[in-house]
Specification:
The chain has helices spanning about 5-15, 20-25, 30-35, 45-55, 55-60; strands at about 1-5, 60-65. By secondary structure, it is mostly helical.
Length: about 70
């Protein structure tokens, strides 16, 4: 399973809110809900997140074996 728990820590560290992700990053509220629930994400969404947070994918997501 891919988990996005690290995403919230990076956002807090960088002072980025979910509102900022929606407005500046082009991430809609439905996608933010899906991230909170560790649901499937498109690679273009992951790309937007990395750009908005100026980070690498491994900074916001991790693979956890079931």
């Amino acid at each position: 399973m891919i988990k996005f728990d690290k995403l919230w820590a990076v956002m807090e560290q960088k002072g980025v809110t979910t509102y900022a992700l929606r407005e500046k990053g082009g991430i809609d509220s439905k996608t933010i809900r899906r991230l909170r629930n560790n649901e499937n994400m498109e690679t273009k969404t992951l790309d937007k997140l990395c750009k908005a947070l100026d980070c690498k994918l491994e900074d916001i997501a991790e693979y956890i074996a079931d």
